[in-house]
Amino acid sequence: MLKSFRRKKSLQLFGLVSPGALWILLFFNLPLLIVLFISLVERGRAGGIKLPPVYSLENYQQLFNACASEFSGPDCDPFLYIGIFGHSVRIALIVTFWCILLGYPLSYFISRQRPVLRDALMILVIIPFWTNFLVRTYALKQVLATEGLLNSFLMNLNLINQPLELLFNEFAVNVGLIYGYLPFAVLPMYASIEKFDHSLMEAASDLGAPPWRAFLRVMLPMTLPGVIAALVLVFVPVVGAFITPDIMGGGKIEMIGTLINRQFGVSRNWPFGASMSLILMLLVLIGVIAYFRSSSEETRRAM
User: Fold this and answer.
1) What does DSSP assign to residue 163?
2) d(Cα 171, Cα 138) in Å, to the nearest integer?
């Protein structure tokens, strides 16, 4: 009887898990294996991959030898690709910092409103997801353009004498990424702050703690899971972004995502682009795991 019950529970568990496992296998693991295969073969003469495939590790070696790549020249930098990756990480950290800095107070403000107003504000946060990301990026480009809405507004107020150069630089890329990924930071932080017992802040105040100390010692540690989730949800897609840097940066701001996109597009060097994609994924995964471990240790110490 006990064996029959266990067998039934196992079948039920298998029925619940199998759809999700099949989805991950078909749409995550299988494409990942295809990318791995492409990264281990040589490039064809007309682009793509050579058939029949010739296996080689040259694509990974090229990442550390830019002088043998399309950037070859007398002033080539053998660590060029590493520099581009570092530049991508720096931009991703800046964007993540501002998304959390702007999103945390907004999440707190929304969580303290009446239910009807709170729901309306959350809808306003979610509304950008109803519009295509590419369309939103082009709309922001028109706002920041030389004759765009922002420059026209400032000139009509006589605050500036000539249009500001707000496009095709790193500033525009950062603004575009913050604009696009801010909702990804607000939603998890709101979910964490909304569950927070605000009477604990009052108790800390009654015990003599100033507001800033009560926030750092009470509220922030207890809402830290939402902050960590926001950090991951923003940092991971931003470090590999290519649409926003390409549109807002005008091709002047090189990030690892734009470089990978060019390998699969104009350069038609699929093996090299696949190897860069896998290295990027591996490094980001290592960084996220390390951050999760350090954050969990700090949370346990705070608790």
Assistant:
1) -
2) 16
* Residues shown for the chain: 303
Q: Is residue 246 within 8 Å of residue 19, measured between CB atoms?
A: no
Count of other CB atoms within 10 angstroms of residue 102:
14
284 in Cβ contact with 236 (< 8 Å)? yes
Q: Which residues contact 291 (CB under 8 A, 6 or more apart)?
A: 228, 231, 232
CB 203 within 8 A of CB 217: no
- Sorted by where each starts, the structural domains of the chain and their CATH numbers stand as 38-302 (1.10.3720.10)
Q: For residue 43, what is the DSSP state?
A: B
pTM for the model:
0.86
Cβ atoms 164, 147 nearer than 8 A: no
Alpha carbon of 258 to those of 97, 109, 174, 264: distances in Å? 22, 36, 15, 10
Are residues 102 and 182 in contact, defined by beta-carbon separation less than 8 angstroms?
yes
* pLDDT tens-digit readout, 3-20: 676 777 777 777 777 888
